[in-house]
Amino acid sequence: MKLTAIREYRGRIRVITGLHIGAGDMEMHIGGTDNPVVKHPFTFEPYIPGSSLKGKVRSLMELKSGLMAFTDGKPLSINALGKASQDLKAYGEAIIKLFGTSGAEEEKLAQFGPSRLSFSDCMLAEEFREMARKGDVVLTEIKPENSINRIKGTAENPRFTERVPAGIEFSFYITMKVFDSDNPDDLENKFLEGLKLVEYDALGGSGSRGYGRVKFFFDDENLNRKFQDILVFHKK
After folding, report:
1. Within 10 Å of residue 158's Cβ, how many Cβ atoms?
2. How far is Cα 94 from Cα 54, in angstroms, rounded to an integer?
3. Residue 42: beta bridge partners?
4. What is the number of other CB atoms lying within 10 angstroms of the CB of residue 233?
5. DSSP state of 125
6. Contact at 8 Å (CB) between 195 and 216?
7. pLDDT tier at 80 (50, 70, 90 boundaries)?
């Protein structure tokens, strides 16, 4: 197995509805939010961790694959792939190649090689950083929420969630390693389908409550046209 190329994918992620990727900070500050978004430790600007984007793309591709019945809810593994029918295996093998598998399967991984995709953290796009410096945009908002008492009809349990507001853009940078045994165009097509699935679904938390709709735009015009034309599911 020989590395023959590394394909680069650069572009923007535009936030369409408020985005919440939690910082995991359980400490509640007086007058603040109890559910902050993840921020850069020096600049305090929100960003999208590469791990969050990678995990979302992979999980949606696994849902689409039909292989979840063999995983017990865990990430797709080579062992689980062995239980699947032949017609499901090809897509599953592409997922393993693109995203890898756990270290526990290291011996079996030799036939697939290392994971092809590498996701960088998606930092705030430069012009939005400049707009924020000038006070033209804000980079986070506080979204109040509560639950409704079904008998009294009153609001209870107020909570305050920090989000990146709609309209903010982040830069993404993803690379795909290509080995001499690969069909790179096929792997690329499946990866792009995975990104398109994120557009159909949501990124970050509370997607079922309207959060996290995003759109991807590639810097390469040809690739961007190809991506915008992707139709993952056939219309009936």
Report:
1. 10
2. 15
3. none
4. 10
5. P
6. yes
7. confident
Of 11-15, 150-154, 223-227, give the lowest mean pLDDT range: 150-154
Q: Report whether pLDDT(51) > 90.
A: yes
Mean pLDDT of 118-143: 96
pTM of the model: 0.89
Of 91, 12, 87, whose CA–CA distance to 53 is shortest? 12
DSSP classification of residue 4:
E
Q: For residue 160, list its beta bridge partners.
A: 144
Dihedral sign from CA coordinates of 130, 135, 137, 141: positive
Residue 37 · residue 21 · CB < 8 Å: yes
**Contact 163/18 with Cβ under 8 angstroms?**
yes
Q: Which two tokens stand for residue 201?
A: 């679904």
Alpha-helix residue ranges (DSSP H) falling in the chain: 50-65, 78-81, 86-99, 126-134, 184-200, 221-228
In sequence order, which residues have a C-beta less than 8 Å from that of residue 34 and are 6 or more positions away?
28, 159, 160
Query: Tens of pLDDT along 132-178?
Result: 999 999 999 998 888 888 888 888 888 889 999 999 999 999 999 99
Please give the share of the chain, as a percent, with pLDDT higher than 70: 92
Paired tokens of 210? 């309207």
Asked whether the beta carbons of 205 and 211 are under 8 A apart, the reply is yes
Closest CA to 191 of 114, 84, 101, 119: 119
End-to-end CA distance of the chain: 42
Token pair of 99, please?
């995203």
Q: Which amino acid is at 32?
A: G
In whole angstroms, what is the distance from residue 49 CA to residue 203 CA?
11
